[in-house]
């Protein structure tokens, strides 16, 4: 892996904001070529082993906007002709190959001559810039790569409010280990700090966010596709996330990964310090973009004492619509705290629930939502 970034002042925090309304193969390839040429990436990456890390949360078809669109992945591969290219992720359920097949990414890899990397072989790795977490098991394909490109999907996220370039790299942690980290990092800020540590250590050479069709509402799996019409990219993934959030009306610093990374000098989250290249921000902003109602990050402005005291009131709990629950038990399988039992329909034992929202994230039926009670309804 590349050395972690030194500091925000020495980093290129330019962000390319390109307006594209459909997943047209040629337009995407041309857009990515422009980005690569402008950043000098063809010369820098030539002859290297490059890992493209898309969001393949689950095996979902492209129109559902759950995963990075396969045409975005294709555009990246085509602009790496002199490289050995692998594509990989660790999905929340199932295998990498199955998720890649169902998302259309496996077909793209076969057509473009890229290899699919299985993320099932973890290597315990020291996080060189770790402040919250000093080591993590990371997929060997990530460790072996000379360069990593984060190719994320613009989506809402129950725990982190938004998921993009930085959060996307959590998929470099294989399988069930991701769920275990929720137990180790139960507090939302600690979990966000771990994600920043991971991002800094992997240090992607380029971060891309697919916001052509984004996801709003009950993300990151069961939300609603929303036409946004932008492709966002840059060397600084924190800056890329800041611009992506601004496009959909989310305050960049309300996203803990962006705020913590900016404070630590790992990236730039301040729009005033970011040069946007391409389309003007005001020309692509969308209104009424729905976030996840009642996510844990909404308590961020409260003093720690009150956060703890009013946790039950102010932090949303996952709620299961029992009428539509099919009893598939995936929520129980992914729950790191063992708080869900499924005798027939899923049932949450709230005394054990740690509010990680893994169940909401992975429910294939979308029947788990976040709800607050009492005073919590007054806070957003």
Total helix count?
16
Main sheet overview: 9 strands, mixed
User: Looking at the structure, what is the overall shape?
Assistant: globular
Distance between the termini: 39 Å
State the CATH class of the largest domain. Alpha Beta
Count of structural domains: 2
Mean pLDDT: 90
The tally of beta strands, per DSSP, is 15
Tell me the CATH topology of the largest domain. Rossmann fold
Structure description:
The chain is an alpha/beta fold and 380 residues long. It folds into 2 domains: 277 residues, 3-Layer(aba) Sandwich (Rossmann fold); 83 residues, Alpha-Beta Plaits, CATH 3.30.70. It has 16 helices and 15 strands. Strand 7 and strand 8 form a beta hairpin. Helix 3 packs parallel to helix 5 and helix 9 packs across helix 11. The radius of gyration is 19 Å and the shape is globular.
Briefly say what this structure is.
With 380 residues, this protein is α/β, with parallel strands linked by helices. It contains 16 helices and 15 strands. The chain starts with 14 loop residues before the first strand and ends in a 9-residue tail after the last strand.
Topology:
Elements: E1 15-19, H1 25-39, H2 41-45, E2 49-54, H3 70-78, E3 84-89, H4 96-103, H5 105-112, E4 115-118, E5 122-126, E6 135-139, H6 140-144, E7 147-157, E8 161-163, H7 165-168, H8 177-184, H9 188-202, E9 206-216, E10 224-234, H10 237-247, H11 256-263, E11 276-278, H12 281-284, H13 304-309, H14 311-314, E12 317-320, H15 330-334, E13 340-341, E14 347-348, H16 358-362, E15 368-371
Parallel strand pairs: 1-11, 2-3, 2-7, 3-4, 7-9
Antiparallel strand pairs: 1-10, 5-6, 7-8, 9-10, 12-15, 13-14
Helix pairs in contact: 1-3, 3-5, 9-11, 10-11
